[in-house]
Design brief:
- Among the domains are: about 10-60, no CATH class; about 140-170, no CATH class; about 170-290, Glucose Permease (Domain IIA) (Distorted Sandwich).
- The longest helix has about 40 residues, at about 75-110.
- It is an alpha+beta fold and about 290 residues long.
- The strands form 3 sheets. Strands 5, 6, 7, 8, 9, 10, 11, 12, 13 and 14 form a 10-stranded antiparallel sheet that branches. A two-stranded antiparallel ribbon has the order 1-2.
- It is elongated and about 140 Å long.
- Helix content is about 35%, strand content about 30%.
Length: about 290
């Protein structure tokens, strides 16, 4: 064991012992150049040279297009570049389609509101920046407006009347309360329903099958009940003294929803009258067009 350690120590010292390497003149054997090296210095120098070479190659590959000169790599690079360009083209096409759809929806809304539609034109190459310019009405557009706004078979008025009549015929609506209409439907005066002078404490019934979507009390209108029916029809009952239903409850036509308010005097005021509203497709409609009071 001692001999092994001794030999190992000698070899370790020999690894760091310097050797003299010289260059002799072939003519007179005179020394022209020499250097002292050890095995440890040779290994260290080789590692340093390899590290510098690795850093040089890595820098060359990262910051220069030298890789494109290699066979096979250029093909993969071109394929990736083409895929990227195609994805950008698809994205721009989707963006243009969305802009066209938004323009179409905006123009439909403008036409329904009676305004002039606009055309959206692209400025330069930026598809996000748009310029809205009015679209001059054509002869065909004027004729279509005349047909839709007139009293012919294609007019909106006749369509609304036909749709309302179809809904009324398809549904047998029940009178919500027995009484006399004191105030009629008038959107111009922000009266979205009818006010009925009914018997104090009378039964307030549902006009048709539906689901109660709201049942609450407010200081202005006492108990309010809102029922969702078929065909996008909503009935609203206001100025009730008591509510007998809860939100989410299913009711049938003729079921009692609550009781009418009892006025403080013999002649009830406007705030004490039972108020009934009817909404179709999100818009208030005249209840007398659907129900015979």
């Amino acid at each position: 064991m001692m001999n092994f350690l001794k030999k190992l120590r000698l070899r370790w010292r020999d690894f760091f012992r310097k050797r003299r390497f010289n260059m002799l003149n072939a003519t007179d054997n005179s020394e022209e150049w020499h250097i002292h090296l050890s095995p440890a210095s040779i290994v260290s120098g080789s590692v340093a040279v390899a590290l510098v070479f690795f850093i040089f190659i890595l820098t060359l590959m990262a910051y220069t297009p030298v890789l494109e000169l290699l066979p096979g790599y250029r093909t993969e690079t071109d394929r990736m570049r083409e895929t990227l360009v195609q994805n950008l083209i698809r994205l721009d096409s989707m963006e243009r389609m969305m802009n066209d759809m938004m323009t179409y929806n905006e123009n439909i809304a403008l036409v329904l509101e009676g305004h002039m539609p606009v055309a959206r034109s692209f400025i330069g190459s930026d598809s996000l920046r748009t310029d809205k310019a009015p679209v001059p009405p054509s002869r065909e557009d004027s004729l279509l407006r005349a047909q839709m706004e007139g009293s012919g078979p294609y007019s909106l008025a006749s369509y609304n009347a036909t749709s309302r009549r179809e809904v009324r015929e398809a549904m047998q609506l029940v009178t919500p309360v027995e009484g006399i209409i004191a105030e009629r439907f008038d959107i111009g005066q922000n009266r979205f329903g009818v006010r009925i002078a009914a018997t104090a404490g009378g039964r307030i019934t549902a006009i048709d099958n539906g689901t109660v979507i709201q049942s609450l009390w407010t200081p202005e209108n006492r108990y309010i009940i809102v029922v969702q029916h078929a065909h996008n029809l909503v009935s609203v009952y206001k100025n009730l003294s008591q509510s007998l239903v809860m939100r989410g409850q299913n009711v049938h036509g003729g079921d009692q929803l609550g009781t009418n308010i009892e006025p403080d005097t013999d002649e009830p005021t406007d705030a004490e009258l039972f108020e009934f509203e009817l909404w179709s497709n999100g818009k208030p409609v005249d209840p007398e067009g659907y129900i015979v009071f």
